[in-house]
Write a structure and sequence with these properties.
Blueprint: H1 2-19, H2 30-41, E1 49-53, H3 61-68, E2 73-78, H4 81-94, E3 99-103, E4 116-122, H5 131-141, E5 142-153, H6 162-165, H7 186-195, E6 198-211, H8 214-221, H9 227-231, H10 235-252, E7 258-270
Parallel strand pairs: 1-2, 1-4, 2-3, 4-5
Antiparallel strand pairs: 5-7, 6-7
Helix pairs in contact: 2-3, 5-7
């Protein structure tokens, strides 16, 4: 079991290493949008010390820096070295002395107990092979009364159900991992309760984004975790899948582009005082 978990983790790191250059840089920037909204909806206060898990390109980190102000501090961690390098470079460009990024495993946080008022995570918890272990670590590094705020995906846009039919998405999720899309957040609520968190609440939101054309959408598919599904296809199969996808897109393309409705859960829970 441990070998399988490590293999899944390594595969995820590999996919995002290859996606890092264009991650949230092509197509409509929905990761940035939901990252900003997570920070806006969270009870983050000026001067807080914050940990951002699976920081990626900083979609949550940079809004958090703005909200906590110069007196606060934000540390972003990620297992993907390329993501950390990219975000570190952006931190330097923006000249943010109270922000930093490090390579670190969320399931083994090399951080002191009770170090943070808040832990944030944008669309990352469902990637952790050992979610219970990660939640225990999050609980440990939070100060009493501190909170976790995280985003996860709701059910996909029904207009895009054809993606599984043409072979772009697996028919079911991987064994042993939380769902990447769900009709509710019961999987997370249960894990949080088991880890000792209280006052769980969830906010649901949906927002439509527009892809300029088929090529922009295809480039976006290669810019995030979904590229892992595409990379497993043989070249000839990949071309057939792409052709079939473009045909489906033409059926509901609008004058301003290709619409995609994204549904998200914002989940919040606290460590008891």
């Amino acid at each position: 079991m441990e070998n399988q978990q490590q293999a899944r983790k390594a595969a995820t790191v590999g996919v995002f290493s290859r996606a890092a250059e264009t991650y949230d840089r092509v197509g409509p920037r929905y990761f940035s949008y939901f990252g900003q909204r997570l920070v806006e909806l969270s009870p983050l206060v000026t001067g807080a010390k914050v940990l951002d898990l699976a920081t990626g390109g900083g979609a949550v980190l940079f809004p958090a820096v703005d909200k906590v102000g110069p007196a606060g501090q934000v540390l972003g961690i990620d297992l993907v070295e390329e993501m950390v390098a990219r975000t570190s470079a952006e931190i330097a460009t923006r000249q943010l002395p109270n922000a930093s990024a490090q390579v670190m495993d969320a399931e083994q946080l090399d951080l002191g107990e009770g170090s943070f008022e808040a832990v944030l995570c944008g669309f990352g918890l469902f990637f952790f092979p050992q979610l219970a272990k990660a939640l225990t670590e999050i609980y440990r590094v939070l100060k009493p009364g501190g909170f976790l705020a995280a985003t996860s995906w709701g059910i996909p846009d029904e207009r895009w159900n054809w993606m599984s039919e043409v072979g772009m998405r697996p028919q079911s999720g991987g064994s042993g991992r939380p769902p990447s899309h769900a009709t509710n957040n019961q999987w997370l609520e249960t894990g949080l309760e088991q880890a000792g968190f209280i006052n769980y609440r969830v906010i649901q939101e949906e927002k439509e984004f527009i892809f300029a054309d088929e090529d922009e959408w295809w480039a976006t598919e290669w810019s995030h975790g979904a590229r892992g599904c595409l990379e497993r296809l043989e070249p000839e199969t990949l071309e057939r899948v792409k052709s079939a996808a473009y045909q489906r897109l033409a059926q509901f393309k609008q004058p301003n582009g290709i619409p995609h409705l994204y549904r998200a859960f914002y989940s919040f829970a606290r460590k008891p005082q």
